[in-house]
Write a structure and sequence with these properties.
Blueprint (H helix, E strand, L loop, with lengths): L26 H25 L3 H9 L9 H13 L2 H13 L5 H16 L3 H18 L7 H5 L6
Length: 160
């Protein structure tokens, strides 16, 4: 989940199915299954942390995703990440695809308005960074997550 989306619910922007379903029949039967699921989840968290160690890795990964009509949040998040690392051209390209989507729901219209605001500031990394930090803080509060120091969000030496 990219906290700059400022949701009041969890979202799974990077996901994959790790195993099939297992029916619960009893605590005795399910206990080893739960232990195995916890171990797999722990290993997958390590994999994701290695895949996304910093903002540049996030931006690169999101930029590598093809733009697909109807997959609204992929280009939106890629545009945000590109703007945060200073890739103005890619940010404009991804936000253009976001703005090409039909606003068939109020949340799309709101996200497109945010995209327009970001397009206006995309050349100013400090402004985009301030927007992102504000959105992340708001999202963390909505989700009742603990606040994080700036260096944990954007790396050491953050001055935003």
């Amino acid at each position: 989940m990219w906290l700059w989306q400022d949701f009041d619910h969890f979202a799974f922007n990077v996901s994959e199915r790790l195993s099939g379903a297992e029916d619960y029949r009893s605590d005795e039967q399910f206990s080893p299954v739960a232990d195995e699921l916890a171990l797999r989840a722990q290993n997958h968290v390590r994999k994701l942390r290695a895949q996304f160690p910093d903002l540049e890795s996030v931006a690169g990964n999101l930029a590598a995703q093809p733009v697909r009509r109807g997959w609204f949040w992929e280009p939106w998040n890629a545009g945000v990440a590109a703007a945060l690392v200073g890739d103005v051209s890619l940010a404009w390209q991804r936000f253009d695809s976001v703005l090409d989507e039909d606003p068939v729901a109020p949340w799309i219209d709101a996200a497109q308005q945010t995209a327009r605001e970001l397009v206006a500031m995309v050349g100013d990394r400090d402004a985009v960074g301030a927007w992102a930090l504000n959105s992340i803080a708001s999202c963390r509060q909505k989700l009742r997550l603990t606040p994080e120091p700036l260096e944990k969000i954007f790396g050491a030496g953050t001055s935003m």
